[in-house]
Write a structure and sequence with these properties.
Blueprint lengths: L2 E8 L6 E7 L5 E6 L8 H14 L7 E4 L5 E6 L3 H10 L1
Parallel strand pairs: 1-3
Antiparallel strand pairs: 1-5, 2-3, 4-5
Amino acid sequence: MPCTIAVRVTPRSSKPGVGEWKTGADGRDELEIRVAAPPTDGQANDAVVKLLSKRLGVPKSAIVIAGGETARHKRIALPMNEAEVRKVLAGN
């Protein structure tokens, strides 16, 4: 079953990768993601999709930025449930 997760993106990071789940300002869990790409012309968004695709083993076309395209805090739709996402990311 597909899910939508909250992520907090840090562009221009010297150490790109997927971080930990943290509680956001709204009380919901959000995943920390660091990318080397700058936040211009959608480069950081593309890097987030590519990173999640690789880590989760799903095609890039199956990952959709559902909200927050121009913000650090984003909603990302994935083709798997949240428990599977957490399990895969914890195992890597």
